[in-house]
Write a structure and sequence with these properties.
Layout (H helix, E strand, L loop, with lengths): L4 H10 L7 E4 L2 H10 L4 E5 L12 E4 L2 H11 L3 E2 L2 E2 L3 E4 L4 E12 L4 E7 L6 H7 L4 E6 L7 H11 L5 H14 L2 E12 L4 E3 L2 E5 L20 H8 L3 E4 L4 E5 L2 H13 L6 E4 L6 H12 L6 E8 L4 H15 L5 E7 L2 H11 L4 E3 L3 H14 L1
Helix pairs in contact: 2-3, 4-8, 5-6, 9-10, 10-11
């Protein structure tokens, strides 16, 4: 369950993470009054559960209350990546000196969390990782030990963040664990010219299995869901729609994140994030492939599985099942390694589907998927 930005901001504030003053409305006239209360000059931000708001015109600076009303009227009712804008958040602007990125994400395959951080925030982390991979730190976090002061400082040093970021990292970990989150992200975390740290934008994804403990958020308005994300959620899949052309399926958040980076490094754009989990069955693989193949933006699909708990022959069986059910018209590149990989490759060889190609390494698989997407 994804929270809206203003809800993530509320959580941050509750846990002592500094955020700008802000209010939410669905009325352009009320936006004028909010801007007046916030000091006149505000940032007007569309509240939708998708990325790319800035590029789509959903984040704009208004110089005074009258401009805030006009801007709110222009943004409300628009559509951003299939998500209608029904509310906007007006926030005080910040005088930014530096921008950073910090997040925690569940790595299902490894059975732990992964801290991802960079001293280069403000843009998509996949883009930073693709162009400057040395700028993105990935630090495993034991869920039992958690983010102690020592672990927070380890993340700070690895990413080259300001030392005071350690306190925010510990508080962000509290958000993750106490609110049953699978992902918490701040992008950007900024240092202002006055020397203050502020979380300007945030994303929080809660575990659907913990809805009974998170009743204060109520039922999310499903009209706001991307249809593919809604279809994936109905199947119990951990899926996020992105803006590219190469569908990505993997087992474990860390492996999927790495696959996204490698695809981007090959000059292509990932079309989605899909983690089938550490113990994925053939049915889960089939369901995931069905969702990815139904995306009209996808030109090729990369399946990258390292068999541990997940047996590669079960994954291959799921791929074959999906091929028979979906009848794809897009090429698939499959890389299987680990538990029962030889048997899994043999299953795909026996099926001999003309659209399925196999690769032995992640780099080779990503290059082939990018080339096939470009040709498509």
């Amino acid at each position: 369950m994804d929270l809206y930005e203003h809800q993530a901001r509320q959580l941050f504030e509750e846990f002592g993470i500094p955020v700008p003053r802000a209010e939410v409305t669905d009325s352009p006239r009320e936006a004028r009054g909010i801007a007046r209360r916030l000091g006149g000059r505000v940032v007007v931000k569309a509240q939708v559960r998708t990325g790319g708001r800035g590029k789509a015109g959903g984040v704009r600076l208004a110089e005074d209350p009258a401009a805030a009303e006009r801007t709110a009227r222009q943004i409300l009712g628009t559509d951003i990546n299939g998500h209608p804008v029904r509310t906007v958040m007006l926030a005080q602007p910040a005088d930014i000196e530096s921008e950073f990125y910090v997040s925690y994400v569940l790595d299902r395959a490894a059975g732990q969390f992964l801290a991802i951080a960079s001293a280069e925030g403000g843009t998509e982390i996949e883009e930073v990782a693709a162009t400057r991979p040395e700028s993105v730190a990935r630090v495993p976090v034991d869920p039992v030990e958690g983010v102690t002061s020592a672990k927070a400082n380890e993340i700070v040093r690895a990413a080259g963040l300001p030392p005071r970021t350690a306190d925010i990292l510990m508080r962000l970990w509290q958000v993750l664990t106490r609110e049953d989150a699978l992902l918490v992200e701040v992008n950007p975390l900024v240092r202002t010219v006055q020397g203050h740290l502020l979380a300007l934008d945030g994303k929080v994804t809660l575990d659907d299995n913990a809805r009974f403990r998170q009743t204060r958020w109520g039922e999310q308005d499903e009209r706001h869901d991307d249809p593919l994300e809604a279809a994936a959620a109905a199947k119990g899949l951990n899926y996020v729609k992105l803006d590219g052309e190469v569908g990505v399926i993997g087992n474990g958040a860390g492996l999927v994140m790495s696959t996204l980076d490698v695809v981007a490094g090959c000059g292509a754009r990932p079309a989605n994030f899909l983690d089938i989990g550490g113990g994925a069955s053939a049915r889960v693989m089939s369901d995931g492939l069905s969702v990815v193949l139904s995306d009209p933006d996808v030109k090729s699909v990369l399946v990258n599985v390292f068999g541990g708990i997940t047996a590669c022959d079960a994954v291959a069986d799921g791929i074959v099942r999906a091929l028979d059910a979906v009848r794809p018209t897009k090429p698939l590149v499959v890389r299987l390694d680990g538990n029962n990989a030889v048997r899994g490759r043999a299953v795909l060889d026996d099926r001999a589907h003309p659209l399925v190609r196999q690769a032995t390494t992640m780099d080779d698989a990503a290059r082939l998927a990018a080339r096939l997407a470009d040709a498509g």
